[in-house]
Amino acid sequence: xxxxxxxxxxxxxxxxxxxxxxxxxxxxxxxxxxxxxxxxxxxxxxxxxxxxxxxxxxxxxxxxxxxxxxxxxxxxxxxxxxxxxxxxxxxxxxxxxxxxxxxxxxxxxxxxxxxxxxxxxxxxxxxxxxxxxxxx
Length: 136
Prior knowledge:
Layout: H1 9-21, H2 50-65, H3 70-76, E1 79-81, E2 89-91, H4 95-108, E3 111-114, E4 120-123, H5 125-133
Antiparallel strand pairs: 1-2, 3-4
């Protein structure tokens, strides 16, 4: 059996995004098509299924890293901001989209909150089975 870490992440994320489209709780809110994902971006995403692709990517990150919080994901999806004449610098992604996706996926039962030494969210057994069933 192949491991999620060894698969091509782009193809795997597409499969997971297609599977997430069938779940009614995971859907893009109305404001999502008007908002940039980060301050380093010039425009909002124009892809139709951007929300599901980002949700699939977040689930994959949680599978690989274990316990992940919003701050860690903001760093993961951040990027280099062009400041014109000033030197470019790294900026974090916005947290609202990431939090909304985490809340939606949590309502489905794929992830759960974790308190303790490492705070954040981790996959439940249902979420792990969902991700591993789409490997084929």
